[in-house]
Amino acid sequence: MNRQQYVEARKALVAEAEGYANEGSLDKFEQKSQEIEALDNKYDQAVKDRANKTAMNDRLKDLRSGMLTGDDAPLEQAPGAGIPDFWDRPSAERGALLRANNAVKLTSTGILVPTRYSDSLSPTFNEVSSLLDLVQVTPRIGGESYEKSYVVGYGEAGEVADDADYDEDDAQFGKAAIIKSKITSYSEVDQGVLELPDVDYDSEVMRGIRIAIRKRISRQILIGTGATNRLMGIFASPVAIDANKDLEITAIDDNLLDEIVYSYGGDEDVEGGATLILNKLDLKAFAQLRDGNGNKIHTIRSNGNTGTIDGIRFIINSACKRLSAAGTAGDFGMAYGNLQNYLLTIFSDIDVRRSEDYKFKSGQVAHRGSVYAGGNVIAHNGFIRVKRDA
Asked: Do the beta carbons of residue 129 and residue 310 sit within 8 Å?
């Protein structure tokens, strides 16, 4: 197995493992991780075997060419007896022989080298909220825009006399427009990253392009302004949300969660299946609430980016302003609702490309990625928004 075969095989396995990670398939992900580890070990052993073979062949050449010359004189008559004959040779030739004899040392694990490098990159913390994966997604490949209608409400019948006109009770409808936005990411790296023998930086740069696009969309679902080439975010001014329903708070206290839950939805139901979107530090503020005896008020169970507060689902998104901090008056920091009430429309597949031609002279490799997408709230008062009282 040569270097190119190893890199191509490893890229394919890593791509499969990433797919299983996104699906949440733990067993398949672990199996693919073991395959990657086995491939790494196989390649490492192949490198050692080739190095040992080359070293032994070089040493064999030295042994073949290092035969001593001269007559069979008695030892006591041989000048410098007990000293190898190359000490009597010119210094340049003697140095070459010394280097040939000393340069290669074999061990059971291969040739000893001054430095060994890891063949993997240590990951960083998660930077993408899973909000992107939990909202409603509709593909409209090749489209320019998309419209989604929704019900605003129904009328109520009334009693009339036998000879009077019927009571007029029209159903009310609304329509949300979803306009495409071009979301892009670009990165340049030195050509050396393609030629490094151990760490596969190139695959990580390509992966980083996709992560950057996902990060942008996940934030825009909340804070997109809805202007030209922007998603319409929940915290902006979607036509489906009545701003008069927004909650204004002065602090995160022991009554806030109840206030949010019971303020959401219609007058006849307490809506289930809703999720609270908030900043991580506001989740911390909920966790620090105590009663008069010092006991925690809320039971919080977290699982990375998601979890529950007293059974109410939550999801963390750093685009939310921290309502528990000073200086956020008037800013939205939380949203509560059914995540399927936000529609993300995909107008194109993610296109990720690499080019070695753009900056050929300077040896730079360019990576770029793009996607056309749009989004909007598609249900009447589909979310209740929370902001700090000014």
From this structure: no
Inter-residue contact 249 to 385 (CB < 8 Å): no
Sign (positive/negative) of CA torsion 307, 310, 312, 318?
Answer: negative
Q: Which residues contact 380 (CB under 8 A, 6 or more apart)?
A: 150, 151, 152, 153, 174, 240
Structure tokens that stand for 127 in this block: 């930077």
Task: Give pTM, 2 decimals.
Answer: 0.67
Question: Each residue of 87-137: pLDDT tens digit?
Answer: 444 544 544 454 444 444 444 444 444 445 556 677 889 889 999 999 999
Cα 302 to Cα 316: distance, rounded to the nearest angstrom: 10
- Residue ranges per structural domain of the chain: 130-156+171-388
Within its chain, how far is the Cα of 124 from the centroid? 9
Would you call 163 exposed, middle or buried from its count of C-beta atoms within 10 A (0-12, 13-18, 19+)?
A: exposed
The 10s digit of each residue's pLDDT in 19-32 is: 888 777 788 888 88
Q: Which residues, 6+ apart, have CB-to-CB distance to 134 below 8 Å?
A: 275, 315, 339
Fold of 130-156+171-388: Major capsid protein gp5 fold (3.30.2400)
Q: Report helix, strand or coil for 13.
A: helix
Alpha carbon 178 to its chain centroid, in Å, reads 26
> What's the number of CA atoms in the CB half-sphere (13 Å) around residue 73?
11
